[in-house]
Amino acid sequence: MTFEEVYNEYFSYIYNIIYARTLNRAETEDLVSDVFFRAMENYGRFNPEKASIKTWICTIARNRLIDYYRSGARTRNVLMANEDMKDFPVEDEYNVEKDDINREAHRILALLSNEERELISMRFFMEMKNTEIAEKLGISSKAVCERYRRLLKKCETLTDKNTLRELLS
């Protein structure tokens, strides 16, 4: 697979992962550009025997997000008002601006901490298993289950239960 094919196949996927963490279009665009630049620089060293392309590029994205948050570049965690909805991705493939469920998901994500959004990102966007998440976070699988349980309970308090069920299905 050429790097151009990797870019075309995974751009939207990586964009959505990063956007779910930053909730800011401009920051997301900068981070995604940096992820693909780093991937392009290191593509010759990619080893398909160690990981899939998807796992490899997700790891680059996750590491870039960790660096980004450690640098203190983004510490804001606020609820965006409806007039701020213009900040959604240009390619609104999920119709976030038009769909009440997606708008509610965005509202809930904005109320979560960076660590909570990271757990959601790993579980739902990156489709990682609890053992993989535990390894990445340096905690036990049981701790991942407990964090995830508490996170779902928190999300329930932020919205009505019917909406939460629709978000998770």
Describe the protein's architecture and organization.
With 169 residues, the protein is mostly helical. It has one domain (3-168). Helices cover 67% and strands 0% of the residues. The protein is built from eight helices and no strands. The two termini are 32 Å apart.
Largest sheet: none
**Range of strand content:** under 5%
Number of distinct beta strands = 0
Number of helices: 8
Average per-residue pLDDT, rounded, comes to: 80
Helix content: 55-70%
| Gyration radius, in Å | 16 Å
Helix-and-strand structural type: mainly alpha
Task: Please tell me what the overall shape is.
Answer: globular
What is the element string, with H for helices and E for strands? HHHHHHHH
